[in-house]
Design goal:
single chain; 157 residues; alpha+beta; Lipocalin; 2 domains; eight-stranded antiparallel sheet; 2 helices; 32% helix
Length: 157
Amino acid sequence: MDIIDLQIQMIWRSFMEDKMKSYHSILIGILAIVMLAGCAAQSTGGDITGTEWKWQGSEVGVGPSLSPQDPSQYTLLFKKDGSLDILADCNRVGGSYVIEGVSLSITVGATTLMACPPGSLDTQFKTQLSQANTYELKNGKLYIGLISDMGTMKFSR
């Protein structure tokens, strides 16, 4: 019986070692997935502060696309303290923003009340900024996604 018990123990150990190797591989795979998911959740859109961003236009889901004739008349300057300087054609506007990961929320604040010339997009520009939901830096351009996938605003330096 001793030889049979010994053989059974050896077979059992071999079986368990193979199982442990399988469990070890599965555990490493699960840990890798969890780590990658954690990295993705913590990724950010990049630093957008300290740069004057010029509006190149917006692609919207419903209605015509918007493009300013002079992008330098529609600008954003995100400051490190969470404040935002906006030029909306002939009006200067204050504001604030909050970034969490790639989420972006913009609050459009006080504005001067100049009457801009016909064809101005100042109202549409301010409205879209207040609908900001996400942002992404891609190839030196800033893309601001609007709530409910209503469209995307595009800015360049």
